[in-house]
Amino acid sequence: MSFDGKVAIITGGARGIGEACAWAFLEQGVDVMLADINPERAETTAQRMSEKYPQRRVRVFQVNTKHQAECFSMADFAVRELGRIDILVNSAGITSQQPSLDVTEDDWNNLIGVNLSGVFFCAQAVGRAMSAGQHGGVIISISSIAAEAALPRRASYNAAKAAINSLTKTLAVEWASFGIRVNAVAPTWVATELTVAAVERGVVSLEKLTGAIPLGRLAEVEDVANAAVFLASDQASMITGQTLYVDGGFIAGAPDAAIR
What we know:
This protein has eight helices and seven strands, in the order E-H-E-H-E-H-E-H-E-H-E-H-H-H-E. It has helices at 16-27, 39-52, 68-82, 105-131, 155-175, 193-200, 206-211, 221-232, and strands at 7-11, 31-36, 58-62, 87-90, 137-142, 180-187, 243-246. It has a seven-stranded parallel sheet, with helices on both faces.
């Protein structure tokens, strides 16, 4: 895979899946911009990246992706600082767990604003830059098994992730003429610091989570990042409008339902 001279924007790049994607692209020779709502955390992450890869350009931009104007400012900043945008990874997102009967208008609008509107606004902003006299580019959004599996107490989250899969198809078809490929990566439960902390507090049962995954383990952030790198590479040049499930077989079926 050749990524020499390419530039990637990673939203939610300060930690978790977004950070793992940034590290993976840096390893492939890509200059990266960490776009995150928390600039202090992003600066700390960027410092570590610059120390390990001093030959790479690493930039930070503060953005709340649910605001369209901020997403356009993000894309403009990337072009000014790094000259171009070749790859966008839409990783910024939030989650919540509450009974559907208790979800307020603000609860709904906030989660949909970040997890769905933010994905579209960032793709729109970067898509304009990619289509303006450039050779094209790749947009990858982080979806979830929740796009297909009805996880209880997560109505807005499930709806947003399902919509991302549909949006991925729409943008892929609409922007193919610009040479822009659009795909999504949908992981199962991932061993992020938030998931690990929830398991340690006893809020989440690791046994139940892994029991629902045929491969018998949580995904690592690197599993998701590796899928994103592949989809951004020329090896995936004929792949667009697809959602790649990095789920250990979860969507295919839970192992305890198999005939023994």
